[in-house]
Amino acid sequence: MVVHGDLVVAGGIGAGVGVRATGDVRVDGPVECAEVVAGGAVLLGAGASGADIRAGVAAAPAGALGRLAGRAPGPLEAAAASAEGLAAAARALGLALVPAEAFRLAVAARHRDLPGRLAGAEVALLRAQEHLPELHPGILAAVRSLLAVLDGEAPAVAPAALARDLAACIGGPGAGRRPGRVVVAPELVGCRVHTGGHVRLTGAGARDGEIRAGGDLMAAAPGGRVAGGSHEVGGRLVCALLGGRGRTEVRLLGHPHDERPLDHEADRVRTARVGEGVVVRAWAGAIGLDPARDGAAVYVARGRPLVRRSPASRR
Q: Which end of the chain offers a freer environment for a tag, N or C, measured as fewer CB atoms within 10 Å?
């Protein structure tokens, strides 16, 4: 099933079913061994088991297209106007300047950042379409056509007109809406979850599986746990219980040269209780957490995860 826009499923989703939407997806019932792909947020009212969940697919293309569109008059309209002005000046001098060459000359002279913005949009759209092919196929075709013109190919449509049409598509209905990336569910069991945003678990938390969150992974409800599996977190992991079901591996995403709170002793992991088999990794090292009833907090310094006991003292 593919939906252009938001999708609401009043019941559940059974095994082997794939649900895709370019907007948000809300499922009121349980999700069992199914695939859910959303351009925006994924909201699961009854949790999921054995599911493959991907949220925020449209977020990166939206950012890239926003940079391409810019503020009115944006780079596309400005390049189109420059190309048309250059062609008109050539005609006034009795010279023949084909539209494609006028567009290339205008971009080279006055809009040198446009090829990079077009290339960035192409990459973001291609990556998104690996998971959601229905997302902006017409816009991708227009971006590629303009890149081909800049590479010296002869277009079927005047590049200035194509640039204006592309700008209109990017700035059309829904352009002001920023796609969500959050995944919200009471419980995830054996699921694969991927989002550039946050994962919020409002009930029992996560057991086994694999969660990759560019933002926070939160399972802070009473009894909320992250137990078993391998998880990657770009923000913070906060839960009532960490570990206690086989091996639980947490990788804290970041970059060695990132000087944001990572190197200022901000807690990246905070849990009220630590179970067996917990390993926390950063880019320059890893530590195993000893089971402790009073919990633990982990921060990153010089790329290494370090343990601070009694996280309640830092609230």
A: C
Joined tokens for residue 267: 């807690």
Give residue 311's pLDDT. Answer: 45
Nearest CA among 180, 179, 223 for reference residue 201: 223
- For residue 203, give both structure tokens: 């009930």
The residue assigned the tokens 């990459």 is 123
Tell me the C-alpha distance between 143 and 188, whole Å: 38
Summarised one tens digit per residue, pLDDT across range 69-127 is 877 678 999 999 999 999 999 999 999 889 999 999 999 999 999 999 999 999 999 99
pLDDT digits (tens, 9 = 90+) for 41-57: 999 999 999 999 999 99
CA 28 to chain centre: 24
Q: Would the pLDDT of 222 be above 80?
A: yes
Q: Are strands 278-282 and 267-274 parallel, antiparallel or unpaired?
A: unpaired
Cα 150–chain centre separation: 29
On whether the CB atoms of residues 20 and 5 are closer than 8 A, the answer is no
pLDDT recorded at residue 262? 45
Residue 195 tokens read as 């989002």
